[in-house]
Give the backbone structure.
Amino acid sequence: MAVTGVLLVLFLVVHMLGNLKIFVGAAAFDHYAHWLRDLGSPLLPHTWYLWIQRAVLTFAVVGHIWAATSLALRAKAARPVKYAHRAKVQGSYAARTMRWGGVIILLFVIYHILDLTTGNLNPVADKAHPYANVVADFAPGRWYVTLFYTLAILSIGFHLRHGIFSALRTLGQQTEKGQRRNRAIALGVAVVLCAGYLSVPFAVLTGLVS
Amino acid sequence: MNLTLRVWRQKGPQDKGRMVSYQVTDVSPDMSFLEMLDMLNERLTLEGEEPVAFDHDCREGICGACSMVINGTAHGPQKLTTTCQLHMRTFSDGDTIDIEPWRAKAFPVIKDLVVNRGAFDKIIQAGGFISAPTGSAPEAHSTPVPKADADEAFDAATCIACGACVAACPNGSGMLFTAAKITHLGLLPQGQPERDSRVVNMLAAHDEAGFGGCTNAGECTAVCPKGIPLTTIGRLNRDFIKASGKR
């Protein structure tokens, strides 16, 4: 859970930095997208780097889901008779919604790939100019896409807030002082990533990027 | 105070069990929760009914015998308090109070609110012994222990193995209990020789007993009557990673 989660968080950070290139301009954003395909060249042939990264990420996602599923099944088996009355004691919203939040994130990732990687669900689907695809995606007329995107990013934010804390604990964070730092890091990363990812659709929506 | 109790009644391990309502009247706010149940049981006995079975022993919050989920919270609404130290002034006249046993596969119900917590003994047994010479008490300064370590080890050692952590855990995990024992011995010089085998064997016994896995949700530490911190689970994880690397 923790190791695959850390890989995915690192990807989220790099992916967000790439997204923010949209504020530099259309040419820079498109150039970045093309550069990704030739990363590692001439050692690696065209798009090889991207496929290696996709393989690693797929491995991480599958491992993450496998670990989560086995934990959920163990939890179900560990309490065969449910409580008639169950209070929320500690009640961290993020901790309680990890499993269903994860399912929402998975559905979003599938949609996101069909939208902006393969282009099946994108109104423009111009592979040579990803900038145009993004702008078309979050056009004011397609407010429902922006709404779904926002909800998905917020789910990721909650998922990260508990997930990063939990991953660091699993990897052996063991002091009180470290725990306070750990919670601050988890909240900070979650907020920064949410802000970074949400800045793009709202910039398009408000006409800042067009 | 007059209260309505909804209590889990189950005749034996094989019985299906159900919630049964009882009215209790003239409850003093100064009674402990268990004294209130004693009062109900005296009445049930006089009426020829089977009294409600529940675990209790010291009634001063140090033995870990009492074990009830009160209105959905292990040991009831007051923090850092066992059921026996919970007083009726915490509740209001006219309240309905739900009382259930710990719910976990590893803690099967024996009768009513009494569960078998033998799974914890299995974990302790798996931890084995520490190599320490027996006989007369050693000179106190012969093995120096840093004050901070001694304090933290002592905090972990205050665990009374009541099982509230398991009862509260959304995963039915016994990780806080296991981690308290690992922390308690792992911080002291006397616990070092068997440190690696202890964590590996205790975790194996924990999983073997049918407890769930830990997801660091933190419900356990919120209900723990001794306030065992969640950081102990980090100590267990670190010890486990180190021990796994050496094998």
